[in-house]
Design goal:
- This protein is of the alpha/beta class.
- The protein is 57% helix and 9% strand.
- It has 8 helices and 5 strands; from the N terminus they run H-H-H-E-H-E-H-E-H-E-H-E-H.
- A 5-stranded parallel β-sheet has the order 3-2-1-4-5.
Length: 266
């Protein structure tokens, strides 16, 4: 390859970064999601999200390969080069949208401004083989610490999606917390909802939407949770993100991006 045709250094670096990111996200999704689908009740919903996660990863991967190796516009026939530029433009724009929403998810989980409130909302997470997933246990640890700091506060535990024995996410959370010494009279169950949006519609019947509340959920889920709460009239939401598993963060972040894009297209 002649000197004039060598890929510029900046482009090679950007391409390598994008390629590494796309491969890491794809590997994380392939590692995390199939096992989760096999363990949860709502298999079809998780399968659909997983399918879209793979599509997003493929888009990022194709964009990275094109940036790194100039795949789409290296052809001499003008028609092929024009088609290549059209495809490249689409890949770049869609990849930019994906990365923007990834950034929103990451930034949303970094904000922590929880203060005193009468109620803290603990969002549920699909049970895995009938047991609380590690990220759900982390949410409960965060919630218990909040109760210790604010003795007058109560927790609203959310989540339906009953598994085989009939136990809902909210009921499982209650059992875990009471076993850890949290008085049951400090726990309120909202165990009818099957989605985050339904959670807040039901919670608005328990807590006036204008009252301040604390939101407790996993860091990757915080941005969408606060937005869903605002859509249902909760204007004073303080954030208290719970840490999530590092090795599953990529797959969880992609899931949030898929659901964000789904909300955007409705």
């Amino acid at each position: 390859m002649g000197k004039g045709k060598r890929t510029p250094l900046a482009r090679r670096i950007i391409g390598d970064i994008l390629l590494a990111l796309a491969v890491l996200l794809l590997a994380d999704a392939l590692f995390v999601m199939p096992a989760r689908i096999d363990a949860v009740v709502l298999k079809a919903d998780y399968q659909e999200v997983f399918t879209y996660e793979i599509i997003l990863c493929v888009i990022l991967l194709l964009c990275a390969l094109d940036v790194r190796f100039n795949l789409l516009t290296r052809w001499k026939p003008v028609v092929l080069r024009v088609i290549g530029w059209i495809l490249r433009t689409g890949l770049v724009l869609f990849s930019a949208v994906i990365l923007f929403f990834c950034g929103k998810v990451i930034a949303g989980g970094m904000i922590q401004n929880a203060g005193q409130a009468d109620y803290a909302i603990v969002l549920g997470l699909a049970l895995e083989n009938g047991e609380p997933a590690p990220d759900l246990l982390a949410r409960l640890d965060t919630a218990r610490n909040y109760l210790e700091k604010y003795p007058e506060a109560k927790l609203i535990l959310t989540g339906g999606n009953a598994e085989g024995t009939g136990r809902t996410e909210a009921a499982v959370m209650r059992d875990v917390l009471t076993e850890q010494g949290v008085p049951e009279d400090r726990l309120i169950l909202e165990d009818q909802a099957t989605t985050t949006k339904e959670n807040f519609r039901n919670i608005s019947e328990i807590v006036p939407a204008g009252d301040p509340v604390v939101m407790i959920s996993s860091d990757y889920h915080m941005d969408r949770a606060v937005r869903n709460a605002a859509e249902n009239g909760f204007s004073q939401v303080m954030r208290l993100p719970a840490p999530s598993r590092f090795l599953a963060y990529g797959a969880n972040m992609l899931s949030e991006v898929v659901l964000d894009l789904n909300d955007l297209t409705k």
